[in-house]
């Protein structure tokens, strides 16, 4: 009995006209980390070009062929000079498509700080990096960071 089969890729039809092909939406995948220090403070950054210069969780784009875990470790090391250990996935965040049709998707990890001091931003996308007490957070925090901080799974971070 022949158990082999083949897949024929068929281009999707335009939803209105029913002809031609529609290019699939692209995913803009980022990987971020909720990092806490020994005092229970959390690391937040400001990125150049970020809307409203909001404080957000550190991280960045996932490169082709790279896992989300490797991406967040690479980004924090390259941009801030710290070494982290992603312990678990805390949040999967999805936003509305941008003008080009790209859908932003972000994987947020709970992470332990393994090495590195108070980060000093290097040349690149980070314009500021700072530890904040969870009872004295800045007023302009990105929604994704607020959701991560409010998560029940974020509570054990202060026990590390």
UniProtKB/TrEMBL annotation:
Presence of the UniProt keyword Hydrolase in the record: yes
Superkingdom of the organism of origin: Bacteria
Coiled-coil parts of chain: none
Keywords assigned: Hydrolase
InterPro entries from the UniProt entry: NUDIX_hydrolase_dom (IPR000086)
Molecular function in Gene Ontology: hydrolase activity
Record domain Nudix hydrolase: where: 12-155
Protein name: NUDIX hydrolase
Cofactor field: Mg(2+)
Protein species of origin: Pseudohoeflea coraliihabitans
